[in-house]
Amino acid sequence: MLEIRSITKRHGAQTALDGISLTVAEGAYLSLLGPSGSGKSTLLRVIAGFDTPDEGQVTLDGRPLTGIPAHERGIGFVSQGFALFPHLSVFDNVAFGLRYHMRKPVRDGSEVRRRVLETLEMVGLAPYAQRQIQQLSGGQKQRVALARTLVVKPRLCLLDEPLGALDANLRQRMTLELRRIHSALGITFFHVTGNEMEALAMGDRVVVLDAGRILQTDTPDVVYNKPNSTAVVRFLNRYNLFAGRNDGRGGIATAAGTIAAPRSGEQRQGADYVDFCIRIDKIQVQLEGEAVGQSQAALPATYITSEFSGAIITHLFRLTDDRVVEVEDHLSHRRPAEYAAGQRYNLVWPRDEGLVFPVSAAVIEAAIRVAA
What we know:
Elements (H helix, E strand, L loop, with lengths): L1 E10 L2 E11 L4 E5 L6 H9 L6 E6 L2 E2 L10 E4 L11 H10 L9 H14 L15 H13 L5 E5 L7 H18 L2 E6 L2 H7 L2 E6 L2 E6 L1 H6 L4 H7 L2 E8 L4 E4 L2 E4 L12 E7 L4 E4 L8 E14 L2 E8 L4 E7 L13 E7 L4 E4 L2 H11 L1
Helix pairs in contact: 2-3, 2-4, 3-4, 4-5
């Protein structure tokens, strides 16, 4: 089990990690999601032993790692750039860590060969053992980097944006490969990414990080369906977001009209100003003038255009305040609707599917200053 306790790391006046605490169960696959500069890679470097925290402690299987050099921690690290040796074959790249381990090098050539070929078989690269690195595709290089890490049997594998350098097709294939390899080995994987869909697809649990602080830790399903703050909603990039104010009658007044609020109201009690969020695939489109039910919320909008991306069509609508919102249509669900440019419609959704987050007075004041 990996335990991170109150880790703080500063770079001069900037705080990269601000009191991070996290527990990762043995054999788990954890995704760490955050924007650039959130502290993701810094946290990995602290765990790996490449950076020393200013405060706090990291333990692995109950053993404090403070003062233990990176090569003695039993932790594997896969970087985004692969860091392969271009002058060595695939076999020799993977064998390098076995042959030149600082404390326990493997001198027996037959043992090296057995373990390297075993690991290459696991990642699907056994036929490529004698290939040179420059003869490989991006996805194959990624698997060589992973094999080189796994061949030394680490207790924990850190992956620093491992799919970031791959194109969309390779990224999707490697997502499946990583999950398969993790299941086969049972090693704890700690996967850092700035891609929200990758984080949700990969992890048994997802940690959302921003400005060196953890915003939410939960299963992918909960993070996706029940983000706990406006900040997490923004990172997911799957919600339309509206600034509004409680009208005292069960509605939220926004610049585009009044939205029927979720009936539970727990998230907005006592808050004058709120952020309202509705996921883009929860919205249905009705012709203007069609009845809206008591259990529904709606806003009037004008159709602009649609964007096709494989199995999904994203329809763009302009609200009365000129902002543009997205409505997602899955082709597997039904025949895609056709809308007329410039035509008025109602955007409708189940009112209890909306999320409401209170906005503090400080945030309102800051927004007013920026606008001024």
